[in-house]
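Can you make up a protein sequence with its backbone structure tokens?

===
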Amino acid sequence: MTQLNTAEKLAILADAAKYDASCSSSGAQRRDSKNSKGIGSTLGGGICHSYTPDGRCISLLKILLTNSCTFDCHYCINRRSSNVRRARFTAREVVDLTIDFYKRNYIEGLFLSSGIINTPDYTMEQIVEVARSLREDHNFRGYIHLKTIPDADPALVAKAGVHADRISINVELPTESGLLRLAPEKSQNRIESAMGSMRNAIEEGADARKRFRSAPVFAPAGQSTQMIVGADAATDRDIVSRASTLYARFALRRVYYSAFSPIPDASAVLPLRRPPLMREHRLYQSDWLIRFYNYTAAEVSAAADPMTGMLPLDIDPKLAWALKFRDMFPVDVNRASKEILLRVPGLGPKAVRSILVSRRHRALRLEDIGRMTVSVRKLRPFIVTTDWRPVSLSDSADLRPLVAPKPIQLEMFGT
């Protein structure tokens, strides 16, 4: 390998990390270095930007330890047979970069992943050493997100949780058959075993903290995973079902979806074109319905095409579900339960909370609902208020053209 300086390594390994979507600081423990000898913070607003649930922007140094890899996964740009320029950081170099970037106010945390070098255990040791050195040698109190290696010794993975805020263990592909076909060196059983062990460790750590104040914090932001969308034949229905199972079995904080992107010198078993980015977006919306709107995976899947198993791209899955189950609507906003109101297209958790509070004091009119939402147009066919009942809209044989977003004509020379 040609000797590269730090800037050249950074250019290569930061670019190689861009395919990993599971980079978020949501759920991080709120801590800072005020009145202490430490440096760094997980607070404040922000080169990779992630957003917390309360809207704070966190800037993370997102890099790979190395893009060299002994595995030959067909979909991966860094696979063993890929013809890409290779680079490798030492653990010390990553630590120095992180501290230097933090002191320049470029970043507030680190997202670190790596290709497999030598053995999974050796690679995991290097990743853990970066986090250990930041925490113990430099008293770094910023956010750290580590991508762990399922094949590594469980004890090493557990050490990562001692120093990191969040741990990622990627399932890679939605189906076992897809994993066997495109990443035969990886095993679904080993991946799920590592995720199960991490869940147990996180729960044990949380329990210990409740009983003993001196107990160490263990991965306070939990664990997440990532699935590649469009590299295999998995349908949206398959992906939604798999994500729901992962949430239930491993108490994940997030499942990330990454649309497959064609890579140079690609294997013949891969598709020639990437899936529409809107497909990735619809899967995130479906994920949101399961996590925050109390939909089951079966209900979200019901919004998909019964023949292809794919979610519609032109409308969101919540609207698609409502159009398929029109007998559930219209809903009286002055009487319906919270669970039913969350099923109304155009009403989010915040608007539903406002409705529940406001209707205690007076009956709500259509204009009242309009003030609680971005647009009342999508809502009109699905709600009843004291002054509105969608008689003609409800009787319409084909409601979709009336509520679907209008297509936008792009301008070639528009500003």
Remarks:
- The longest strand covers residues 57-64.
- DSSP finds 15 helices and nine strands in the chain.
- The two ends are 46 Å apart (CA to CA).
